User: Which sequence fits this backbone?
């Protein structure tokens, strides 16, 4: 079991504080065994003031961080003068090699502890100028959902914390488990990034629902040669209108969106099956093994075989993840992955 310490820094953003337990707590890896134990802690256990009308009772002190594998600092309304005990505990955790993460304005606390100096990081976009002014030594990335730089992870505000937690699940337990949890918490599938020193999510959040049915339809046909005309016909609109609405809702063109989804499906197949590279390319819709290699290297910095060696979650020759074979088969019968049209 992976142990998580969630640090509440008063005044606590209550939404952010609830995310790790709700998302990570949904992980059921094998035979009903929980994947994470989540404990919330603070410098002074007891009632903690929230940013809204709610007060929260936090039962644990900072010693909960001692045996944690990961420490997560959630959003706070106090972006300066964090409790020195919390800053010291975070430095100790980082020095011990623990994974340290923040959600939203929790990045201000990590920065005060000196953990972000020289690193890539992000925070809630409305706080960008303040953050840059106060912490010039941090390489701030204001336009991404989350960033991973070595053992330090930071996310943007509010729902981006869900993306961060899904990324942690993918890292710890694989794409199949992460996507199961995404469905359980009614969130978008994992928004993955590259496997380089830091990870930026390449998929912006969707902001519209008018083409949601068409996107779901395409996701169930990723291995088919979908064209703009196919998507427009399903949406009962013209190609020009489809393209305009698609970009408004996803910030991507329809074919860019399809390519992202196909590469993501290829990554999941590489992690959770022992299919040949030809079959991975086919079922993910990227076409050929050369195309699979090109797009995966561009996205992750790894070849397909290198990615599988680094991130596979299956014993050789079995073809599926023990206890998690439902992950791929839980998709609609013909849901494999959208194909790239040219």
Assistant:
């Amino acid at each position: 079991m992976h142990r998580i310490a969630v640090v509440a820094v008063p005044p606590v953003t209550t939404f952010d504080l609830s995310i790790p337990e709700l998302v990570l707590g949904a992980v059921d890896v094998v035979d009903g065994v929980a994947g994470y134990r989540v404990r919330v802690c603070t410098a002074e256990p007891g009632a903690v003031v929230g940013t809204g009308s709610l007060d929260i009772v936090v039962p644990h002190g900072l010693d909960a961080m001692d045996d944690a594998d990961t420490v997560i600092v959630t959003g706070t309304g106090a972006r300066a003068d964090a409790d020195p005990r919390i800053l010291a505990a975070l430095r100790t955790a980082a020095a011990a090699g623990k994974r340290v993460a923040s959600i939203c304005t929790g990045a201000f606390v990590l920065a005060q502890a000196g953990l972000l100096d020289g690193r890539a990081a992000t925070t809630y976009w409305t706080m960008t100028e303040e953050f840059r002014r106060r912490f010039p030594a941090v390489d701030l990335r204001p336009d991404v959902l989350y960033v991973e730089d070595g053992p330090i992870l930071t996310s943007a505000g509010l729902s981006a914390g869900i993306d961060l937690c899904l990324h942690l699940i993918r890292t710890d337990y694989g794409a199949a488990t992460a996507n199961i949890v995404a469905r359980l918490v009614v969130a978008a599938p994992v928004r993955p990034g590259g496997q380089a020193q830091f990870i930026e999510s390449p998929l912006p959040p969707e902001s519209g629902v008018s083409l949601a049915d068409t996107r779901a339809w395409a996701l169930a046909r990723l291995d088919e040669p979908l064209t703009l005309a196919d998507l427009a016909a399903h949406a009962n609109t013209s190609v020009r209108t489809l393209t305009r609405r698609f970009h408004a809702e996803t910030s991507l063109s329809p074919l860019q969106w399809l390519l992202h989804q196909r590469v993501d499906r290829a990554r999941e197949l590489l992690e959770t099956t022992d299919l040949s590279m030809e079959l991975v390319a086919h079922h993910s819709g990227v076409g050929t093994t050369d195309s699979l290699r090109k797009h995966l290297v561009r996205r992750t910095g790894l070849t397909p075989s290198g990615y599988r060696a680094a991130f596979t979650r299956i014993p050789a020759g079995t073809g599926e993840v023990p206890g998690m074979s439902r992950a791929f088969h839980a998709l609609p019968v013909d849901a494999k992955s959208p194909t790239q049209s040219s």
